[in-house]
Amino acid sequence: MDFRARIRAAEHTDASAVARIGSAAMSAQYIGLVDPEAVRAAVRQTYSVESIADCIERCRSADAAEFLVAERDGNVEGFLHFDSFGPEPELHRLYVDGEARSAGLGSRLMEALNDRLPESVRYMLLVVEGNDRAVAFYQRHGLQVAEQVDGLVYYRERMGVDFPASTRPFRLVLMRQV
After folding, report:
1. With contact defined as beta carbons under 8 Å apart, do 80 and 66 qualify?
2. DSSP result, 45-73
3. Residue ranges of the domains in the chain?
4. What is the architecture, at CATH level 2, of domain 6-177?
5. pLDDT tens digit sequence for 76-131
6. Which is the most buried residue in 5, 41, 133, 134, by most CB within 10 A?
7. Helices H, strands E: what count in the chain?
8. pTM for the whole thing?
9. Around Cβ 13, how many Cβ atoms within 10 Å?
């Protein structure tokens, strides 16, 4: 595990690095699992520098939200976004830069989140069906598979993403902290 990385609250100046990491990671991880049109639409609408900066600021000003970054040698190499803005607390995204993956940064971000949350808070997260590596990672961190949901419906209703009419459906695995 890389202990040289510092985990800290994100600042609006981190938005560009977060957008770059999230765009690249989402595009790479969903190859063969999600319609490329859906990925492009989600990246375009949720990973613009402006939308990330807005999300960071909303999380900074809320009690039940965390937007964390893993920084090493002055460079943001990963991030985590958690909030309670929707119907239930949710870990929305956790991504690590491709070159820094498998160095323990994801685990450090999860530990930092759980250290910041009251013990009574239980949250959910969604993983694209077929991303078995992510499911196993979250299971190691105390989450369990609960059910599967329609990805297009979830992203439309909960995140406001508009998909082209021809977008092929995809499934998400809903996991819950136990």
Report:
1. yes
2. HHSSHHHHHHHHHHHHT-TTEEEEEEEET
3. 6-177
4. 3-Layer(aba) Sandwich (3.40)
5. 999 999 999 988 999 999 999 877 676 689 999 999 999 999 999 999 999 999 99
6. 5
7. 6, 7
8. 0.90
9. 10
